[in-house]
Structures are given as C-alpha cells and as structure tokens.
Amino acid sequence: MATFRGAKDDYGNKNQPPSSFNTIPATISGMNAPDQSPAQMLATPVQFIKGAGPRRVELLKRLGLRTVRDVLFYFPRDYQDLSDERDVPDLEEGRLQSVRGAVEEIDLRSTSSGGCILGVLVRCRGGHVRAIWFNQPTMRERFSYGQRVLLSGKPKYEGLIWQMTHPRVETLDAEEPAGKLQPVYPLTEGLQQWEMRRIVRSAVETYNDLLNEVFPQPYLEEHDLWPLRRALPAIHFPDDQEGLRRSRRRFVYQELFILQLALALKRTQQHERRKATPLEATAKIDARITRLFPFELTAGQRESIAEIAADMARPMPMNRLLQGDVGSGKTVVAVYAMLLAVAHGYQAAMMAPTEVLARQHAQTLDKLLAASEVRRVQLTGGLPAKQRGEILRRIAAGEVDVVVGTQAIIQDDVAFDKLGLVVIDEQHKFGVRQRAVLKRAGLDPHYLVMTATPIPRTVTMTLFGDLDVSTLRDSPPGRQRVNTYCVGEEKRAGWWDFLRKKLDEGRQAYIVTPLVDESVQTEAASLEETYESLANGELAAYRLGLIHGRMGAAEKDAVMDDFRGGEIQALICTSVIEVGVDVPNATLMTIESGHRFGLAQLHQLRGRISRGSFPGFCCVFAEPQSPEAAQRLKALESSTDGFELGEIDFRLRGPGDLFGTRQHGLPPLLIADLLHDAETLEEARRDAQAFVAADPEMGKPEHAKLRRMVLARYGTALELGDVG
After folding, report:
1. Of 192, 367, 411, 562, which residue has the fewest beta carbons closer than 10 angstroms?
2. Are the C-beta atoms of residues 521 and 538 closer than 8 Å to each other?
C-alpha cells in the first residue's frame, strides 16, 4: 500500500514548496558543472544566472527568488501590449502607439509661472520623438544619455517633430528583443523591469530544456495542454495573445488540478481510511429529538438534517460544511446532530470564535433542552481555575453530554470520555491547525462546521473542497424582511427621529461603530465618542449600553443580559455582535462609517435585526471613497440574499483575503485566479476526482511525479502525510 508520509518539496524541506510547477528534487549547488544532474542545475543559486550577478542577489531574495527554479516559475503579473509599436514614419495622431529608441537629449527648464518642462528627445527607427512632461522635475532622474527606452502614448505632430505628452516610459535592456507582449513582473525597490526580464529570459534560454514534465503524454493530449517546455517560454515571452492563452491555461490548470487532487485524496482518506462509530437516526431517536423543538422545521432544515444523519450513520467520520444565510436556522440543525450523538451515549462539543457567541449558543441549548436530561457545560477562557478544573473532570469522566465553548475546548488539558461529534461555528475564523486538534480530541468523531457567511462556489471548492456541503437558503416562518438604507449625513436627523419613535413603541436598537478608540488615522466613528455623543444628544432620554471585544467576559455577559431583558434600549457596540447574537426584539440598527466594512460583514451585522416577528430597519451612514465601496453599499440596499451578496462581494473584491482565507493554512495560488478561472477550476475538479477514483493512492508509476507534487505542496496543510 502506498504511503503519504514524509513527502519533501523541491528543496528537501518537508511540505514547504516555493511553487507547484516542477517536481525535480534539488540540492543547492554552485556554478554549473558538467557532472551535475538536471536537478542540481535547476537548484543553481540566482547569482549565477546571466544578468543577475552579486548586486541583484539580495533584491531577488526579497522576491523569494533564490534558485534557477524559482526564477523559471516566477510568473508575470501582467503584460504590456506593444502590438501597435511603430516606426516614426508610420505614427498617427490621436491613437495609442509605442516607439522604442535611444535618449539623445535631456532638457529640463523652468517656466515664467514657476513650473517646469522636461523634454527628452529619443532617436527611434525612422526619426525622432520628443517626450514632454509638465511640472514633473523628478522624471529627470529616470533618464540618461544613450539609454534605451520604450514610449507609449498618443503622438501629435508639432511642427517638424512627433511629440508625446506624459507618455508611459519604460527602460529597456540593450539586448532585449522586440516583442508584441512584454511581461510585467512584480518587483522590489531597486530592481527594474528590464533587469528582471533579462534575468528571466536568460534562465529560460539556459535551463528550460532541463525541466521534467509532470503529466503523462496521453494526459496532455487528452486535456489539450501544452507540454511544460513549450508553455514556460511562452508564458514569460508570448508571441501573441493565443500563445499567452494556451501557456497560461497549462499552468492554471496544473495549479488547480494539483489542489483538487490533494482535496480528493483527503476525502478518500476521510471516507475510506478513518473509522467512526455509526450513529443512526432511528425513527424513535428522531421523534425524541424533534419533540424538543417548539416549532416546525423548515424544508431546508429537514433536508440538511437528513444529509447529516445519513453521514453520521456511516462507519466513517462525517466531514460536512453547513452554510446558510443569516437567520436560516443553522443552530437548530447543529443541535439535532449533537442530540443524535448524545442519544447513542456519546459526547458532543461545539466551538464558537467568541465568548459572546459561545454563550449565545449555550443559552439556545438551555432553552431548547430545558425539559431534557442532557447534561451541558460551558467552557471558555475566563473561568476561575477551580471551576474549570471541575468542568474538565466531569468531561473526562463522561458526566457531561454537551460542551459549548471557545478555543478553550482545544487546550491540551481537555480530555473527552467519548467524543462523538464536533461542531465548529463560523469555520472561517479558525485555522486548519485548530480544526485538526479538535478532530484528535476524540477517536475520529463526526465533524460538522457551520458558516453564516455564504461562500462563493469557487471558494467553497477550494477552501472546503475536502468537505461535503449542505446549504440552507430558506428562513423560518415569521421572519421579517429588513429594510435597508445607505445614506449620507444629510439624513441623520430624520433617522434618529424614526429610531426614537420605534424605541418608544418598545423596540430595541444596535448602534455599530468600527473602532473602540479614537484614531487620528481614520475618520471612522469611535465607540466611546459615539456613546458620549448619543447619551448627551439624540438618545439622552433612553437607556444605553456599551459592549466591545476588549471587555471582560463577565462584563459582556452582564450587558447582553440587560439588553435581552430590555433593561438596555440601545446597545452601542463594535462588530463583536456580528455573528450569532439573537435578541428578537432588537429590530433597529445604525451602522456608522459603513464604507469601512466589507459587504459580507455588513450583511452579517444586518442579520442581527431579522430574528423576530417585527420588521427590521437598518440605516448605514457612509461616505464611500471609491466606486467599489459605492457598489458594495448599493448591493446591500437592494438585496437581502446572502448568497447573492457573497458572489457580488467576490466580484468586487476579488479572491484575496475574502474572509481570512489565510487562516486555512493552504499555500497561496501562484497563477490561478478564482474569480476569472472558475471554468478551469470546475474542469480541474472533475478531472481530479475521476483521477483519484481510478487510482485512489496515486500509486501507479506514471503518476509518481504528480503524487510527489501533491504531497510537497499540500501534504502538511491537509494532513496527507499521516496515512500509511
């Protein structure tokens, strides 16, 4: 049987690869020698690449480039299209064109109005072009006599010479050949594009033929992929747009395929290697559980429960993501799963990212299970040592059925007697390491994660590709729509009049600010400042409370208890109430400096006032500083569908750190873009699943290189090395 233990990357370091595009193991070497292997030559330090030299070594290291291999797979971030590069006699007025040539004259002169004009005369093919900049004296430092440059702009014929005003200028290597598409690389201060291009070109010309193809030839043909040795030169220095498209497809597909192979292998391990106790939802158990809920389950809840129950009835651990919009009733589904474990004599643990949310879940359980004999405890970081010790003793002795808490659940001194189910709320706020520790807290418990942040499909396939997914879209009956208004300061007086009227009718309100303390760096409203202003102004006649993440647990509990009980009419808070806080009578929300929140976070905050039978009203005061911020607010105003907003947010913000994706511990994608490469991702996912289905261990000789690459890149992050 194949083993996945101890995989090493291209440097011989376990599971810390610089890229996923070459699988030849390396040993660091000096200058190339005749008896060196291809692997050793690809590991040649960058200083020995023509054009690099000792002066640029430290600059290249800043970019993470230490060996030839690093440089070969350092992909351009963009391309400069010089398809309309012309000789001087062929220039036309008013059209964007490019010319290249050598600097002959540099003239910086002052004007009578106190400004300056910089003129640079460039000798090009077929004549001269003068580049002119107004009031930019520092541009003078960029030019020297004889320097080769590329000018791009809209030329105009002035008397006897063509002239470009404020053109884009780029320094060229004297040996750099002309090309229609010029690569644009990420740089560091002190390194210029022409230098980076020369280094990369030299590396490609010298070492490209040493690269080892990772895909079997039949696979390349079947999936219409260019071979590595053809694709690599073309992605750095493409001849045309078609060559760029084909070469980029090769590397995007490869990167996503390797990721999806890793996820497929993980699922195979979970489904076929690990064992768990089957916890079947018999008709009798189902009736006992549903009898505890004082309401009818929605169709979506019943469907998700059926999927979870089917997973938990199997002799392998469930690994399922439950995602749903705010207010869709995910907690009830999780409670069902926990009670299913308890019905079979096993313990269940539920972990939340904050103490506020953990206590909210504990109170929900107390309410639902008041008439049951289920033994419950809370385990958070702020407990006195004696109380904590007693709770840990009871958990270890099996005297507790359900544990609800924060990260305190995964401390080394926490030992469960028979842990059958782990539930993690707001999975994206926890990292892979925390998730793995929880799984080891018992002997292969079933595993359910929940998120109220609707996740775009491409992100789900990437970050949660090793999990099965259940989705809740409908809301429990009686939930009211939230009316949302994104306004400027001119509407403030009218909003406070409306809010006071609703408070007089018995409703309660949240006032959310983005900061705890004042900051000179931002105009965002401060929490303390907002509290003082309202207490002495617009809400002087009402009972106000204050809560934020820096307060102690007992203090936060007291404030939230007063708010739930109606003692506090308006709660001034930070986004600590973003997730899970459930006060049905709180139907009003004011969000200050709303342009400083992300769309998903604004939707989460708004979800706090859709919990009861009264309609909600949310007013977002914002002064958007960019078109993107304005679009975000417009989307919030026009839609209450979290899944729709999640996709909009993804399109607006791109695939960066969408909701703390770095927490997941997966290496960043080097060339693929989840926003623009969704179709290729779907293709790679289908192919990877079929690939692993046909060769579950990737043990066939022709798959050895792919297997090694998967383990080098994702072996640690996905725990692929603990099998065998």
Report:
1. 367
2. no
Fold of the CATH domain 482-639: Rossmann fold (3.40.50)
Task: Give the start-end residues of each E strand in 544-630.
Answer: 544-547, 570-573, 586-591, 616-621
Statement: residue 519 has pLDDT above 60: no
CATH number 3.40.50.300 given to 283-314+329-451: yes
Domain 83-178: CATH superfamily, name plus number: Nucleic acid-binding proteins (2.40.50.140)
Distance of CA 103 to the CA centre of its chain: 45
According to DSSP, residue 675 is labeled: T
Q: Where are the domains of the chain?
A: 83-178, 283-314+329-451, 482-639
User: What are the residues whose beta carbons fall under 8 Å from the beta carbon of 666, sequence distance 6 or more?
Assistant: 259, 432, 462, 463, 714, 717, 718
The pair of structure tokens assigned to 644 is 């729709």
On the question of pLDDT at 580 being above 60, the answer is: no
Distance CA 117, CA 165 (A): 11
User: CB within 8 A of 378, min separation 6: which ones?
Assistant: 358, 359, 362, 403, 404, 405
**According to the 3-state scheme, what is the secondary structure of 474-504?**
CCCCCCCCEEEEEECHHHHHHHHHHHHHHHH
| Single-letter amino acid code for the residue at 399 | E
Confirm if 612 and 534 have CB atoms less than 8 A apart: no
Query: How many C-beta atoms lie closer than 10 Å to residue 373's C-beta?
Result: 7
CATH topology match: 83-178 vs 283-314+329-451 = no
Bridge partners of residue 151, in order along the sequence: 99, 169
| Cβ pair 472, 478 in contact under 8 A | no
The residue among 636, 581, 620 whose CA lies nearest residue 571 is 581
CA dist., res. 368 & res. 263, Å (int): 37
Greatest alpha-carbon pair distance for the chain in Å reads 96
pTM, 2 dp: 0.70
Closest C-alpha among 379, 368, 426, 350 to residue 553:
379
